[in-house]
Amino acid sequence: MANEKKGYTLIEILVALTIVGLIFGIGYVNFRDFARRQALAGVARSVMGDLRLAQEQALAGKKPTSAFCDSPNQLNGYNFRVINASSYRLAANCSGGNVETKLVSLPADITISSPSPNPITFKILGQGTNLSADANITLTQAGTSNTRSITVTQGGEIK
């Protein structure tokens, strides 16, 4: 009875470590997918915010300080233009020319599709948009099947 030793066998320790490893591995994969989806959702919220910014500035008739927009030139609206798959720009559309108000570069793994027409123009004082049909903007995440779609209606609703 005095030689009775207490403890775990090598087999028990290996089984426990294998189970912990499997749980960690599955959790990590799920967390990584969740983090990627959240990154795409964050970019989609940012693009929608910029669309709303252009819309609000057009509704308010806010002219930027620029020779292109100073009197006698008039503000026609605000443009949202996709430049390429990784960037877009907001610009005031004045009768003297366009004035860039914001330039955005997307994260390296996210691309944006050009809406039709490009640019989307939010006209001043609630006159709607330049759209003859709803415009769709699609954000795609590289290496995954994750996409987000943003729709701008003819009346200017962003959803």
Q: Which geometry do the CA atoms define?
A: rod-shaped
| Strand order of the biggest β-sheet | 3-2-1-5
Pick out the low-confidence regions: none
Chain-averaged pLDDT:
93
Write down the secondary-structure element order. HEEEEEEE
Our measurement of the CA-to-CA distance between the termini, rounded to an integer number of angstroms, reads 76 Å
Give the C-alpha Rg: 26 Å
Look at the helices and sheets and give the structural class.
alpha+beta
The profile of the biggest β sheet is: 4 strands, antiparallel
Count of beta strands: 7
What percentage of amino acids are in beta strands? 25-35%
Number of helices: 1
Provide a brief overview of the structure.
The chain is an alpha+beta fold and 159 residues long. Helix content is 32%, strand content 30%.
What labels would you give this structure?
alpha+beta
In terms of topology, how is this protein built?
Elements: H1 10-60, E1 75-84, E2 87-94, E3 97-105, E4 110-112, E5 120-123, E6 135-141, E7 147-152
Antiparallel strand pairs: 1-2, 1-5, 2-3, 4-6, 6-7
Describe the structure.
This protein is an alpha+beta fold and 159 residues long. The protein has one domain (10-152). It is built from 1 helix and 7 strands. The chain has one helix at residues 10-60; strands at residues 75-84, 87-94, 97-105, 110-112, 120-123, 135-141, 147-152. It has a 4-stranded antiparallel sheet with strand order 3-2-1-5, covered by helices on one side. A 3-stranded antiparallel sheet has the order 4-6-7, covered by helices on one side. The chain is rod-shaped. The protein starts with 9 loop residues before the first helix and ends in a 7-residue tail after the last strand. The mean pLDDT is 93.
